[in-house]
Write a structure and sequence with these properties.
single chain; 117 residues; mainly beta; Rieske Iron-sulfur Protein; 6-stranded antiparallel beta sheet; 3-stranded antiparallel beta sheet; 0% helix; 55% strand; binds FE2/S2 (inorganic) cluster; dioxygenase activity; 2 iron, 2 sulfur cluster binding; iron
C-alpha cells in the first residue's frame, strides 16, 4: 500500500521528516536531489527517536594521515548515545549484524514522496 508523505520540494538534501503511517513511526531522509530513504524511527539500542538525531556524513580513512568526509547526508546519528546508521541500508556504521534498522521503499510519484508498505 502506498502512502504520500509530502511534496518532494518540502524535503531538501540533508533534511528529515518524521511521519506516522498506521502504527508505524518512520523517518524519511533526503540524501540528495530526488533521493529519499525511509527507516524505522526507533534506534535498535534503546529506542530513541532517530528523527531527533542529526543527519550528516562520516569520516573515512583509506590511508595513514588522510581523513575524508564521506557519505554526506546518508548517516543519521542517534540523539541519545550517538550510534550512527546508514539511512540507505539501515546498517550501523560500526560492525554489527544484530542492530540493523528496518528500511522502507520510497519513490517519487508526481512530485510527491511516497512510501510503499
Ligand atoms: S538509544 Fe540510540 S544509541 Fe542508544
Amino acid at each position: 500500500m502506498k502512502y504520500t508523505i509530502c511534496k518532494k520540494n518540502e524535503l531538501l538534501p540533508g533534511e528529515k521528516k518524521a511521519v506516522s503511517v498506521g502504527k508505524k513511526s518512520i523517518v524519511v531522509v533526503c540524501t540528495g536531489d530526488n533521493e529519499y530513504h525511509a527507516i524505522k524511527n526507533s534506534c535498535p539500542h534503546q529506542g530513541a527517536e532517530l528523527s531527533e538525531g542529526r543527519v550528516g556524513g562520516t569520516t573515512v580513512s583509506q590511508e595513514v594521515g588522510v581523513i575524508q568526509y564521506d557519505k554526506i547526508n546518508e548517516v543519521i546519528r542517534c540523539p541519545w548515545h550517538g550510534f550512527e546508521f546508514n539511512v540507505k541500508t539501515g546498517c550501523p556504521l560500526y560492525p554489527s549484524d544484530k542492530t540493523r534498522i528496518k528500511t522502507y521503499d520510497v519513490q517519487v510519484e508526481d512530485e510527491n514522496i511516497v512510501i510503499n508498505l
